[in-house]
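Re: beginner question about structure tokens

> Can someone show what the tokenized structure looks like for a real chain? I only ever see the sequence side.

Sure, here's an example I had lying around. Input first:
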Amino acid sequence: MTSFRVLQGLSALSLMVALGLGAAPAAAQAPTRIAVVDTQRAIMETEDGLRAQATLKKVFDSRQRELDKKQDDLQKEREDIEKQKDVVSKAALAKRIDKWQREMVQLQQVFVEYNKELQKKQNELTAPIFQKAMGLIRRVATQEGFDVIVDKQAVPYVRGDLDVTDRLITLYNQGVAPEPAGAGASKPAAALPTLKAPAPTPPSPVAPAPAPAAPKPAAPKP
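And the corresponding structure tokens:
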């Protein structure tokens, strides 16, 4: 399962706003101190983040197995319908096809519900990690005098000594208390692995009954 990109959509600007950080005033003479953090890794590689990933993987794998089994059952049913279409009556065949189509619609509805369930579960597990990580980034900025900490994904190049990701993970795992995050902190952007949508091939439709031949009365004898 792909790793959960908790902050994939978070821009450098929104991250600065979330942390309540900004560049030094124009009138200040001291140079602006900047650091970067790989926010996604800093969150998901903490001990809590790794546990969250393991929990989500279990839920994901379980739901995918259920969908795969139901899809296999429908595929077998379709194959059986195809084999029987020249044996059973047209009415019986139409009834089986109608039942198959209803079950297919139900499976697609289950697929949608399972994806919603995964989304909700991810939010429940990752929101507390996200909030604590934001507070720790603010603490690092305050203690070490950084004016701006931007997400590493937003810059094409950065010196290695400006990356505070490993430091953040260590602080998190040590249980260091975070500073309160800014009131406008953004929520993590979800990027869950997508369940494979069920799409078995429907059975061939029942051919309509042939129309009765038009009557051809015999011509009267001369």
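Each token stands for a local structural state, so reading them left to right follows the chain. Strands lie at 34-37, 148-151.
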